[in-house]
Amino acid sequence: MPDKHLVSLNDIHVHFPVQKNWLGQVKSTAHVLNGIDLHASAGETLGIVGESGCGKSTLAQVLMGLLQPTRGKVSWHTASAKPNIQIVFQDPQSSLDPRLPVWKVITEPIHIQGGHSRVQLRQIAADLAVQVGLREEYLDRYPHEFSGGQRQRIAIARALAPNPDIIVLDEPTSALDISVQAQILNLLNDLQKARNLSYILISHNVSVIKHMSKRIAVMYLGQIVELGPTSEVLQKPAHPYTELLLDAVPDMTGAQTMTGPIDLPELPGNRHLPSGCFFYDRCRYRDEKGCHLAQPLRSLGAAQAIRWVRCYKNIYENPIRAESTETSL
Ligand SMILES: Nc1ncnc2c1ncn2[C@@H]1O[C@H](COP(=O)(O)OP(=O)(O)OP(=O)(O)O)[C@@H](O)[C@H]1O
């Protein structure tokens, strides 16, 4: 797999003004992204995991260019200045226009660009339908006539239509029956190989990320707290929050882990961020030495900068941690 970066994010912050008073003055600010450094390479799937509200969808919007960061830089590294990025949402029911027949739904993104005749668009839709496992005779039907899994196939065909470099998959299987989830994930894997696509897979579900991505970023309160090869991070987490996430997943191989949000204590609010380590109050390893201090994302192992962690303590090499997580994987 070539390690060519398509996009890099550098120190991305997104803050939303909230609670304006009657004079229109901002009374508080939601600090949704708080210094994200990340890149996505051609042909890879980068998994982004974190509990609800940690900023995953906001990060997707920044990547797509739909949201201007308050601070930081998004850099594109493709020949055509900006790569083509499409998105597949969690709920195909609400993301597909119910008034259009499927062939128009699929080709809508390129129809908007112009330059294609109706016959050409119909042919493109027919080709894409085959690629995502839909029958050509379905093309004149409407989205409501399909099952959830089929609708997600339509959404994937739609995302493929403009020939994207990157597809952001925002919880692509969370709304589907368990039996259908694996089919959609396998389809996405096949399409990636055939087209050298880059995926950014956003999920609260560690099992989905494990199935799909070689690299994982763990998000907490708008920061990446751990980043590295998925198998290594899941086998031996280096950040206490990753460990907590994994402890909350009852069975890493079981079908039941494919559904439902991870049940953790409530995420602290993003209106009043801690001045030091964001995870301090929930951390089982905190001590009074340096744990309260803000931490950068540091490389584990100087030679190969492939694993990164934002933690004062090196729990990676702490034998107490290793014993406590042994049973969860
Ligand atoms: N425009 C906005 N104004 C104020 N707060 C916002 C805005 N957009 C998002 N937020 C807040 O930012 C936080 C992160 O939202 P985001 O949707 O990115 O999280 P998420 O990790 O994708 O969550 P989920 O998994 O539930 O979709 C939430 O607390 C949300 O309420």
UniProtKB/TrEMBL annotation:
Pfam families: ABC_tran, oligo_HPY. InterPro entries: AAA+_ATPase, ABC_transp_ATP-bind, ABC_transporter-like_ATP-bd, ABC_transporter-like_CS, Oligopep_ABC_C, P-loop_NTPase. Keywords: ATP-binding, Cell membrane, Membrane, Nucleotide-binding, Transport. The keyword Magnesium does not apply. It comes from the Bacteria. SUPFAM superfamilies: P-loop containing nucleoside triphosphate hydrolases. GO terms for biological process: peptide transport; transmembrane transport. Residues 7-246 form the ABC transporter domain. One of its GO terms (molecular function) is ATP binding. The keyword rRNA-binding does not apply. Belongs to the ABC transporter superfamily. This is ABC transporter ATP-binding protein. It comes from Advenella faeciporci.
